[in-house]
Amino acid sequence: MRFQLLLAAKFICTFCAALFAGAALYINVAEHPARMSFETSVAVKQWALSYKRATWLQAPLALLGFAAGLTAWLLGASIVWLAAALLMGAVVPFTFIAVMRTNNKLLAPDRDLASPETRALLEKWGKLHAVRTSLSLVATVLCIWLLVRV
């Protein structure tokens, strides 16, 4: 039974990390650059819609991936599983500490949607999001490496 739980925890951690990384990478390489090709007022409106939807996908994946990796480690898996879990878990406080200020400024009701400051905030958001993407990609690579090593 313990072996099955350990296997399930490893799979869930890997699955969540890979899904999060894939979605985050798509945002960085396709969605955000495409959005930035529009005038700023259109780009920020599209960003706001996308942000609200992506939150409901990415936050649970980060938290579940963290919990599953931590569980795997607590069940006796390598400390590298804990490292992968911490990388996934780090996405959440990074979002609250570093990204949320930018998000709140972009979502402010009195924001001039066409201003150069709004454009700069969108550019900053893309760079901050790339940090989340990087954390999840490293976690995914670690998980996959741990699963395939013999």
Describe the structure.
The radius of gyration is 17 Å and the shape is elongated. It has four helices and no strands. With 150 residues, the protein is mainly alpha-helical. The two termini are 22 Å apart. α1 runs antiparallel to α2, α2 packs parallel to α4 and α3 packs antiparallel against α4. 88% of the residues lie in helices and 0% in strands.
Short descriptors:
150 residues, mainly alpha
Describe how the helices and strands are arranged.
Blueprint (H helix, E strand, L loop, with lengths): L1 H35 L3 H35 L4 H29 L8 H33 L2
Helix pairs in contact: 1-2, 1-4, 2-3, 2-4, 3-4
Give a brief rundown of this model.
The protein has 150 residues and is mainly alpha-helical. It contains 4 helices and no strands.
Give the overall form.
elongated
Helix content: over 70%
User: Taking Cα atoms only, what radius of gyration do you get, to the nearest Å?
Assistant: 17 Å
Cα distance spanning the termini: 22 Å
Which sequence of SSEs, written as H and E, runs from N to C?
A: HHHH
Number of strands: 0
Determine the number of helices (DSSP H or I, runs of at least 4 residues): 4
Quickly give the structural class: mainly alpha
Proportion of beta-strand residues:
under 5%
User: Which runs of at least 5 residues are low in confidence (pLDDT < 50)?
Assistant: none
Largest sheet: none
**Average predicted local confidence, pLDDT:** 97
